[in-house]
Amino acid sequence: MAEEDLGALLARSTRRVIAEERPLLDELDLSMWGYILLSRLSRAPAETQLALATAINYDKTRLIGLLDELEHDGLVTRRPDPKDRRARIVSLTPEGERRHAAARSAIKAMEDRLLAGASAADRRRLWRLLADLSDDSA
Amino acid sequence: MAEEDLGALLARSTRRVIAEERPLLDELDLSMWGYILLSRLSRAPAETQLALATAINYDKTRLIGLLDELEHDGLVTRRPDPKDRRARIVSLTPEGERRHAAARSAIKAMEDRLLAGASAADRRRLWRLLADLSDDSA
DNA sequence: TATTGTTATACTCTATAACTATA
DNA sequence: TATAGTTATAGAGTATAACAATA
């Protein structure tokens, strides 16, 4: 049989991993985009909502509702930038950090289970290959 | 920095590959789902449209319109199954085979370019890992 | 009664355009 | 005038329900 498409393999793998993540996130009352946003903020607060949207490849208009929910749940805060009162600085609350850490850890355990058949070296190679693939400057 | 999510890496890689595929498919007047469907049929004709839909993970009601287009473009045929006149057997026309082969070859060249940095052994490992990942029986 | 293919409908996700407040 | 955030609206993609023909 002909070698399978890379795109098809990647798409199916992504679907599988997302399917495994969803119940874990449901348990923590997080949407997929909510988790992605918390992950981004766990690395650094966002100077503007616009920068945040582009950083996670999300539409800036949809970001509003997402932030509304996360703020309502006490996971993030929006505060005006004193240097530019048009902009809002978005950051994680302590509860937001906890929630993200819990989600990340549950997801990590699931990933380890999925990759149980792969050696540590295999995983390192996989991570590097995927990182290269997802870098559209290459 | 913390190790990145497998799901995030896969999703970004998938997006990247799809973005590279789209102009190649546009050139051949094929939609992404059209290409996926032709790929499936290039392996074997489909006994029923229902089986075809589930095989490519597509909604059976949306399949109708897709088949209408592909049939109109002369790439596939629907003929009633003589053994069960409810069912329609879907198969590629010669032009459908040609079109699919052209698309597959253009996409293969693109994949080779994206994976230029990876050795043949790396690729084999990647294919096996992704095949395992995408198998939800595991 | 159950199943294949189909149509009609509703719903979700996403993108476009227009508005406000600051700069 | 230009930009950050927001709202309202329209569009694509997807799923649900109901129908006709055949088994």
Strand arrangement, largest sheet of chain A? 1-2
DSSP strand count of chain A: 2
Note the run of SSEs of chain A as H and E. HHHHEEHH
Largest interface: A-B, 44 and 44 residues
What are the low-pLDDT stretches of chain A, counting only 5+ consecutive residues below 50?
A: none
Chain-wise SSE layout:
The structure is a homodimer of 138-residue chains.
Chain A: H1 6-27, H2 32-43, H3 49-55, H4 60-72, E1 76-81, E2 84-92, H5 94-114, H6 120-133
Antiparallel strand pairs in A: 1-2
Chain A binds a DNA duplex (23 and 23 nucleotides) through residues 48-50, 59-64, 84-88.
Which key phrases capture this entry?
homodimer, 138 residues, DNA-binding, two-stranded antiparallel sheet, mainly alpha
Quick synopsis:
The structure is a homodimer of 138-residue chains. With 138 residues, chain A is mostly helical.
Task: Describe what this molecule looks like in 3D.
Two copies of one chain form a homodimer. Chain A is mainly α and 138 residues long. The first copy, chain A, is 64% helix and 11% strand. Chain A has six helices and two strands. Chain A has a two-stranded antiparallel sheet with strand order 1-2. In chain A, a hairpin with a 2-residue loop joins β1 (76-81) and β2 (84-92). The radius of gyration of chain A is 17 Å and the shape is globular. Chain A binds a DNA duplex (23 and 23 nucleotides) through α4 and β2.
